[in-house]
Amino acid sequence: MNVRKPAALAALAACAVLALTACDPEDGGTAAPAAPTAASTPAASTPAAPPAATPSGGTGGSATAPAGGTGGTVAADVPLCGNSEKESDVKAELTLDKSADPRINGVLKLTNTSGHDCVVYGGPDLRTDHVPGTFTKLRSGVLGGGSFATDRAHGTVLHPGTPVYQAVSWLSAPPVAANATCTTGDVLELVRNGEVLGLTVQVEDGRYCPIAEEGSDQIRIGVPKAGEAEARAQWKHDGK
User: According to the model, what pLDDT value does residue 86 have?
Assistant: First the structure.
């Protein structure tokens, strides 16, 4: 006679009551622990993702922009190009094109002859010896695009033996009125570095007239270029 049968039947009855509970009829009526479900399992603690990094400056790109813009900043130990009692640090040569007379076009070739790097800066400042021995400032403007550095830190470094070129252009006859004020002279001077550097070239019977109405520019000069062709290309901006 099987004495465990009533106990087994009782266990089965208990399982019927606990329909969702796993029971073992051989366990003397003790319910097995319910298996954990996805709904009842505590969520594992997941560290929060770090915030996405934002590039320095807020607009992307490198954190530090090149100093002084595209031209960079001149090193503090680079001296100014200047004139000494015997000679200048820079040699200037002027080539003229009079094919569009009365418009006179030219290219200034500037070559560092000092044997070391030196820097030039300053806005357009051209003069002529209207009175022999004394230079008179011409009303000078910018030829073509670009702008001139007005401080040493953003000037143009001239390397020994490597020339730079600057276009110049002026009218030798007034376009508006025959009696417009023109300035004459035989020497043209380019002044840079706060008058520390003065470069002179010969322009025989030079005559510099207002390019438009009275009081407008008498001469224009382009920013330094690495090649002569680049400098000549600036003439087209003043060819009318």
Answer: 73
